Amino acid sequence: MSxxxxxPTPNPEHSTxxxxxxxxxxxxxxxxxxxxxxxxxxxxxxxxxxxxAINIVRAQGAPIKIGFPTPLTGAFSAEAQxxxxxxxxxxxxxxxxGGFNGRKVELLVRxxxxxxxxxxxxxxxxxxxxxxxxxxxxxxxxxxxxxNAVTRERKVIFNSISQSDAINEAKDWSPYTFHEALxxxxxxxxxxxxxxxxxxxxVVYLTADYAYGHEMVRGFERAGKALGATTxxxxxxxxxxxxxxxxxxxxQALKPDILVLCNFGRDLVNSAKQATDFGLKESTRxxxxxxxxxxxxxxxxxxxxGVVGGTSYYWGMEDSxxxxxxxxDKFRRAYGGAVPSDYGALGYAGVxxxxxxxxNAKSTDSDKVADALGxxxxxxxKGNQFYRKCDHQSVQSIIIVESKSKGMKDKNDVFSVxxxxxxxxxxxxxxxxxGHKG
Amino acid sequence: xxxxxPQLLGLQLVTGVALGAIYALLAVGLSLIFGMLxxxxxxxxxxxxxxAFLGIYFQTLTGSFALSLVITPLVVGxxxxxxxxFLVRPLYGRGIDYPLLLTFGLSYVLIELMRVLxxxxxxxxxxxxxxxxxxxxxxxxxxxxxLVLIGATAAVVLGLWLMIEKTRFGLIIRAGSRDPEIxxxxxxxxxxxxxxxxxxxxxxxxxxxxxxxxxRAVNPExxxxxxxxxxxxxxxxxxxxxxxxxxxxxxxxxxFSMTSLLAPEFAELSIFVLMALVLLxxxxxxxxxxGLMG
Amino acid sequence: MAPLLTPVxxxxxxxxxxxxxxxxxxxxxxxxxxxxxxxxLIFGLYAVGFNLLFGYTGMLSFGHAAFLGVGSYLTGMxxxxxxxxxxxxxxxxxxxxxxxxxxxxxxxxxxRGIYFSMxxxxxxxIVYYGFYKAERWTGGENGLRGVTVPAFEFAGWTIDxxxxxxxxxxxxxFVAIALGLVSRILASPFGAVIEAIxxxxxxxxxxxxxxxxxxxxxxxxxxxxCGLAGSLRAIHLSVVPIDSLHYLQSGQAVxxxxxGGMGTFFGPFVGAAVFLYLEDVVTTxxxxxxxxxxxxxxxxxxxxxxxxxxxxxxxWERATTPSAQT
Amino acid sequence: xxxxxIQRHAMDVQADILIEARHISRQxxxxxALTDIxxxxxxxxxxxxxxxxxxxxxxxxxxxSGAIAPSSGSVLFQxxxxxxxxxxxxxxxxxxxxxxxxxxxxxxxxxxxxxxAVQMRHARFDFxxxxxxxxxxxxxxxxxxxxxGLASLGQKPxxxxxxxxxxxxxVAMALAADPQLLLMDEPTAGxxxxxxxxxxxxxxxxxxxxxxxxxxxxxxxxxxxxxTLIVLHHGQLLAQGSPEDIRANPEVRRVYLGQG
Lengths: 438, 294, 326, 260
Prior knowledge:
The structure holds four protein chains of four kinds. Chain A has helices at 12-23, 30-47, 77-96, 116-129, 141-153, 184-199, 211-227, 248-254, 266-277, 293-299, 301-304, 322-334, 342-361, 366-375; strands spanning 64-70, 105-111, 134-137, 157-160, 177-179, 202-208, 230-237, 258-262, 285-290, 308-311, 377-378, 385-387, 394-395, 398-403, 415-421. By secondary structure, chain A is α/β, with parallel strands linked by helices. Chain A has three domains: 9-17 and 27-54, no CATH class; 58-182 and 328-393, 3-Layer(aba) Sandwich (Rossmann fold), CATH 3.40.50.2300; 185-311 and 397-427, Rossmann fold (3-Layer(aba) Sandwich), CATH 3.40.50.2300. In chain A, the strands form three sheets. Chain A has a seven-stranded mixed sheet, sandwiched between helices. In chain A, β8 (258-262), α9 and β9 (285-290) form a beta-alpha-beta unit. Chain C is 73% helix and 3% strand. Chain C has helices spanning 2-14, 16-26, 34-54, 65-80, 86-108, 113-133, 135-138, 164-187, 189-199, 201-206, 211-237, 247-260, 267-285, 289-303, 307-320, and strands at residues 144-145, 152-154, 157-159, 239-240. Chain C has a two-stranded antiparallel ribbon with strand order 1-4. A two-stranded antiparallel ribbon of chain C has the order 2-3. By secondary structure, chain C is mainly alpha-helical. Chain C has a single domain, classed as ABC transporter involved in vitamin B12 uptake, BtuC. In chain C, α3 runs antiparallel to α11. Chain D has helices spanning 3-13, 57-64, 87-92, 110-122, 137-147, 163-176, 193-207, 219-223, 243-248, 250-255; strands spanning 17-28, 31-42, 46-50, 72-77, 80-81, 95-98, 181-185, 211-215, 228-233, 236-241. By secondary structure, chain D is of the alpha/beta class. Chain D is built from ten helices and ten strands. The two termini of chain D are 25 Å apart. In chain D, β4 and β5 form a beta hairpin. The chains are: A alpha/beta, B mainly alpha, C mainly alpha, D alpha/beta. The interface between A and C is large, with 54 and 43 residues.
């Protein structure tokens, strides 16, 4: 145990940078980074216990620090690690471009283990110990909200790259809160507008029983009302349930045109898979508000055959969107031909927006940068975007994809782009509805 | 709300039984180990998970689901025996807490091991071609594979029952689960028996992993929720009672299935409520021996 | 080691609360960052509360997350919804978890051994779902946000919880009081009774002690202390995550106790410190932290069943009273 | 047939009856362990329950000590019905027992074992006063240890004591409550001849101040020291009376033929 007793050291900054080098996995240099990790391991344990970790006077030209809490371990680790790759890419780009008057950017990645408590502690660490200038990251409604609760109190900018409706609402929102990702209302609405006219109006929802799931349903029903869709049932299943068979006979009996799977990640994989086994697809079209690239890869072609869903980004859109092509190529170059996933792309955009705002504001001061972000109009990877004034929600296009089961070119060729809904404020909930004045 | 036709209830029942089948298998393994070794195996869910991964691995390797059904339990069982020999054995006679907590630590290691070997996203798993699709039971369509699942479980339980009733090893187990002292008196090499029992228990966990794989997402964390559920089953049935494990497995499956139909949100809660009620009325579980672990 | 250790440990043992406080005063400067130090304070207290039941009375509960969580939520809700003063909010949190403890305990103490563990687990999960479903008040899966204590004047000082050091020392105050209380209880006749119950229930009853009533009392005490830990955590994180009610959180208490040494006064605290520090360091070093934590855990069970502090005590006893260890 | 005898016996000693069993019966499932046993025990009296293995001695002992409840019948202590009370309530009324299987707080020191037992009389639910400062408790405990000859071993964990010493420790704990009735289930079981004599002397000595009821299957051992013997056989009261009566009793002779 003795090695665990922290020994004093004059330079606490070190330990983190070691850690970060590791925490940003570089697909193309795995072997070396592993070795580096081992050294870091030795160093880190000794250094991590630095006394007087706080109140370090930071010299001019010190690096701009961006804290990046994300669930490197746990159910969404695949997505999270793709987020990190893409974020690293944005940082590298910026630094290669000379940084911000000589100041380079440093990305401090922390594992929030998909646990809101851990996320809050890690955010406190990033702010209090590492003195980060900004926070970007998170990959779940709960963790992003707890990160936001911490940053809001301390007036630190947080650009969330994970979905949630709550974070837009005045109750949680702060002038330092930005939301790069889509929110359930936008995604669900877009998918509804695409699917209801096409596949029918009798709808059953199989919903993960938590805010995110409920928000999805709300989004669908709103859009559905306009289109004359009727809800046969909204069946709520426990979050993270492994088996959905018990919910399926009832759905079978209801004979809906559309079954909307208002759940995420592994819940989606499981429910889609089991619905397929029950032969539901013979009479019903399966629809998912958020169809993740990674879920589809993990779930396999059969389970997702013919499933239609929404996403913030699919690499395949590069055929029609030049920005996407450019982004994919950068990513492929950096990571040995790999393509960015939807959430990965958000990691890139989230960091890049903040850095652009720093340049525009000519400062790293929270208020100045927040102001600059508010004015920002950008096209990083998927077409034009901007943050709505009242709630800092990024107004952006939404991609509707359909899962392929045959004729795939390679393992990444999993979707066909069915349609792209252009960015429009009218698809967001109104500012007044969210409790914002103006 | 759809009206509750006999067909729907019937189908819901079958679904519950199919669910219960997996619970029962897991609980049988847990109960076997507990009954003999009074070890509460917190790594059981992990062994289940390992079974699912290896099942797919051997299936792709040999190209045959049937083969992996045979190989995987053997491999998982051997891992189990290694664990018993080198990790659990030193803890016998140190009370119930220590083995329990050790296996908890072991489960962490196994989960991480699978992450390293097969990646964090998990593996895509699909039903073997010949068992795909759904059949019309007359009360509605039901996945063929889940029927097979029920059959397979029945077969395993039957086989186990025969072994316990008809073989000498079974005799020792029966005696042992009543009173471990007896086994020693019978002049049996207890250490060897316990090793085999632990192996058998974990092998069954592995087998249920292979069987469950086609019905759900296979990922390193898949064992965690399953563990809690199979504990509920084991405790409801009565720790150490194989009969109890099977009955409670089906009971829990059906209760879960029925609440899913009538009050979906409370499906998961329902099984914990069931456990609380059973234990408060019958502290030793449905088939458990009173005073055990008292 | 022993000769050097003996006088130190004797001193510590004599003034155990005082010495732990002295240590905790400098503690934040030994940690990589204050938030971690605060977490250790909170979980140390949580583990101490749990140890009262597990280590001293021999009852292994898998439902203690319920008390941490209820403490957190009730304190949080009193601040967020009722806008009560934070001190009152903490009192409410502690009271509520004590109450829940009384209810759970009343049902659970009818069972023994592994069944006790499982009943507490089940009841704990029921509490979990209760709060999960009460989304309007608890925020459900999103957790309860906005548990903020505005800066206030105290004895001419401005106390601002966004200053980590201030927050640490305020929390330390509460933990100190709780530790003093626990230490006092353990030294009391009642402390002797619960240890007797752990050793031999039948005999304790034959001595004339009301075993059931004593068990219930410890259960409630333990719950209230874990509740205080929860209350502090709500203020520390300014959010209450639903996970704080999950049974995995209960498991953490067990791990911390074992790591540090169950049935010893400092053990759980040491356990919590090492556990959290380890996790913190390991997670920043490798994504495979689960393997590392799991292994260390197994090593302890196998080779240091007494835990870190427990093993030190044992060495000390062997050094001072040889007969006791034969 | 000997019921009237008991009744008559009861008449003249009604005055100083300490504990009384009335028509005690007990089944375990189908097995009838005890059938309609009525016995009275006088105060400050050394008495032994004897009988061959399986006669129902331990069952009867457990019913008298409140460990198990009778299926029918009742137990009176000082004229009060105490049937079915909690074990700790028996203890608080002044009924102490030492178990057949040694039963101490193994990890606690011998002294702490007795101290806890003594403490019972002073403080039950006291959370605050430091236990060490509890008036006289420690001294009383030490005195009791001396009385059973363990004075020097006070600091040793009870689990580490020799078997005989653990039995003695149990007696000390039983005495701690200064009971009026001391029930002892085979106090000399597994003891060496030397230890046995020491224990028997101690018991005789104790019986001077209180009622002591022994369960013993070694007849020889108790014949010498007991005032009254109660003989059980197949769960029934076979005979009771002075050692002389018992020796003379043909029934008993038949049962114990070749034994004792």
